[in-house]
């Protein structure tokens, strides 16, 4: 099983990015699906989660700005990030069940 995260990059504050996590090797349906991020020098934190394709939760710092979604047909997990702030800078990791992606770097300039 592999998770390939993509979509990171450099964006100005107020901008948007869409992260994708493509899964291969098996189909995920009711597993817990999560996005984490890790800022330089900080612990990894949970940003968004989706359980069983239904229940969704967000960290308080991103609520109203980030949206987690999935495509069953494409076996892909996504994170739409709007109104980005410099404090959103970090490496973003997808996690589906016990599997982790390699991370994609997001840098938000002020």
Secondary-structure topology with pairs:
Layout: E1 2-6, E2 9-12, E3 17-24, E4 33-38, E5 45-51, E6 55-58, E7 66-71, E8 76-81, E9 90-96, E10 99-100, E11 104-109
Parallel strand pairs: 2-11
Antiparallel strand pairs: 1-3, 3-8, 4-5, 4-9, 5-6, 7-8, 9-10, 9-11
Q: Report the strand count.
A: 11
Helical proportion? under 10%
Outline the biggest β-sheet: 7 strands, mixed
User: Helical stretch count?
Assistant: 0
Secondary-structure-derived class: mainly beta
Q: Quick gist of this model?
A:
This protein has strands at about 1-5, 10, 15-25, 35-40, 45-50, 55-60, 65-70, 75-80, 90-95, 100, 105-110.
Overview of the structural elements:
It contains no helices and 11 strands. With 110 residues, the chain is mainly beta. The strands form 2 sheets. Strands 2, 4, 5, 6, 9, 10 and 11 form a 7-stranded mixed beta sheet that branches. The chain has a 4-stranded antiparallel beta sheet with strand order 1-3-8-7, with no helix packed on it. A hairpin with a 6-residue loop joins strand 4 and strand 5 (45-51). The radius of gyration is 13 Å and the shape is globular. The protein starts with a strand and ends with a strand. The model has no long low-confidence stretch (mean pLDDT 94).
């Amino acid at each position: 099983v592999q998770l390939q995260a993509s979509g990171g990059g450099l964006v100005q504050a107020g901008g948007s990015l869409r992260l994708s996590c493509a899964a291969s090797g098996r189909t995920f349906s009711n597993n817990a699906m999560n996005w984490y991020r890790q800022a330089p020098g900080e612990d990894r934190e949970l940003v968004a989660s989706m359980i069983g394709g239904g229940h969704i939760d967000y960290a308080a710092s991103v609520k109203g700005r980030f949206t987690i979604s999935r495509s069953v047909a494409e076996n892909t997990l996504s994170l739409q990030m709007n109104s980005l702030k410099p404090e959103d800078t970090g490496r973003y990791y997808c996690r589906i069940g016990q599997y982790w992606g390699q991370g994609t770097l997001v840098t938000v300039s002020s």
